[in-house]
Write a structure and sequence with these properties.
This protein is an alpha/beta fold. α5 crosses α6. It folds into two domains: 64 residues, Winged helix-like DNA-binding domain superfamily/Winged helix DNA-binding domain (Arc Repressor Mutant, subunit A), CATH 1.10.10.10; 180 residues, 3-Layer(aba) Sandwich (Rossmann fold), CATH 3.40.50.1360. The chain has a seven-stranded parallel sheet. It has eleven helices and 15 strands. α6 links the parallel β4 and β5.
Length: 251
Amino acid sequence: MIATQRLEKIKEILLIERTVDIHKLRSILNVSDVTIRKDLAELEKQGFLIKTRGGATLAEVSTQEITHSSSILNYDLKDYIATIAANTIEDGDTIFLGSGATCYLLAQKLKHKDVTIITNNISALYELTPHLKRVFLIGGELLYRENMISSSSEKVDDYFKDIYVNKAFTSISGIDLMAGLTVDHTLSTFVYKQVPNITKCWTLLADHMKFNKIALFQVGTIETPDRIITNQIDDIYKNAFLEKGVEVITE
């Protein structure tokens, strides 16, 4: 495992467990204690962790970056959408929660529900783990966007092939009548393309600024999701979704 891969793996472990010791890292990374100490020193220099005797803890600044709502672009719109989405979730549900700030805000509203969550949203995972008993992370390479952290991998289909959820929630980078549903990062496509295979109820969470926007990579058409929740939608898009059998919710 090369240095950059080791650093990403250490970050992933710390974001989930918040503390780690050198012995555990040695068994996971299969490198010497000297190499691990160098990696920890590099991440401490980046401000990601604080070295301790025999290991490290997640730096306070890292947790603040993940959880501080003021760092979320268009917070009010996304929180409004997340609130509507939370009202569609019931105790006993098994949920897939995608990446992005809106899904993170949705996670905040699920702390006291009796649900099982599968997610690649590490920011949401950090929010949920102190409260829910059953939260599962899909691993892979870490992605950083708008102070949110997620993971994905081209091998994610190996994980998804054995699971099924009754509800899935994802955000999206762009929605266009011709280009369909698009995202910014090629790694994200591997997760999005598996979502229709693991649920009969895929809910898209998108504020009005996502319409008439095209990102780099297509992950579906406007008929791919089962439902869209938004704060505002023009009639041309609303009618297009409804004609394809997609439920539209704005309140």
